[in-house]
Amino acid sequence: MKCKLRVTDVSTGMYVAELDRPWLESPFLFQGFVVESRRELAQLRETCQYVYVNPERSRSDLQSKIRRLAVLDRGEGAAAHAAEPPAEHRFRAFKRELARALDIREKTRQYLDVLMDDARLGKHVSIQGVHTVVTEMLDTILINPAATLWLIQLRDKDEHTALHSINTSVLSMIFARHEGMNREDIETIGMGALLHDIGKVRMPKSVLMKDGPLDREEWDMMRSHAEQGHRMLNQSGGVSEQVKTIVLQHHERLDGSGYPQHLHDNQIDRMALMVGLVDAYDAMTGDWPNSPPISPHKALASLRKTAGAQFGVELIERFIRCMGVYPIGTVVRLTTGAKGIVVSHNRASRLKPVLMMVEDPRGEPYRKRPLVDLASQKGESAGNWQIQQALDPHDFGDERLRSITAAESLI
Ligand SMILES: [Fe+2]
Ligand SMILES: [Fe+2]
């Protein structure tokens, strides 16, 4: 038997069997769990209004209390159940988690710097550290994917490989979770993605950072990074076969156009293909020496249009669903001409995200950068709060810089 409880009545020791929304839209990895910490309790309160608690599987001293607290289900519609927690509530959670995620990213980056230096010097790669940082990243993702995704927008020009690896890892784990993988597999894909380009440390800087097209020989050298990385991990030991396969195969494509082995279809490992797709997406949205960044929205549209044969139409569609129509970090123009940056999604309405406003309709920057939840705009004014277009970062001048300042102003 399950009892419907107001989330404010839930306490530690209770077994939550069901939420008022799909599990996949929640930060919880397990479908049914005993609330064990205050943190889990806080997460529940941020996510739901009601939950269904199983008294038999809860701590024995709580069973009669649960039955007493149970509210009658008067058949409120599913829409009422799926109502979002108030925007203010979500903003607060977002700010808190952004600060935490920033901290973890900084730690991960410092760790990667050491790891890459070691690898460059021919030392062995310390796998225990990779495991630790991936687990920490995964924990923040599970609590607030929006804050973690926001971080992906924040990068400096000269931090290509390290930050690209962190981004690919975070996005791959978010994607894996969306695909319904279990915690162990999500960690594995996160590790594989974090290490996917480790072979690049063996590439000469003149090739890696070349400002201009690569010649044939340089391309061949660049393409050897997948095998180089695989070899390095073989030598260092302590890495699972699955992680090594991701590193070796992340440039293989379903139509055989990839490398190093030109594999086809199901010869390619599923996780390696997912990391390959995320890698391509992050490369398109990042600022690289030879290609200026494009907006997350355009990158998804372009993958849909051109990469079906390489990754499979289904996988791309699922990735787009996972990222949202307007991925976090997208700069959008509203019908009024005002501009904002997507900072969070509304689960019920993907076309109406939460925006941080950066420019008013006359093109003047907002000094305080208000947060606006497009889904909660009602009546006549709702028409003014509609997205007209997603913008490219370079259409928006120093948007990247702005987004960094904006994010800092949030914390
Ligand atoms: Fe690569
Ligand atoms: Fe990469």
Automatic annotation (TrEMBL):
Cross-referenced InterPro entries: DUF3391 (IPR021812), HD/PDEase_dom (IPR003607), HD_GYP_dom (IPR037522), HDIG_dom (IPR006675)
Gene3D superfamilies hit by this protein: Hypothetical protein af1432
Superkingdom to which the source organism belongs: Bacteria
Domain spans labelled HD-GYP: 139-335
Entry protein name: HD-GYP domain-containing protein
The organism of origin for this protein: Natronospira bacteriovora
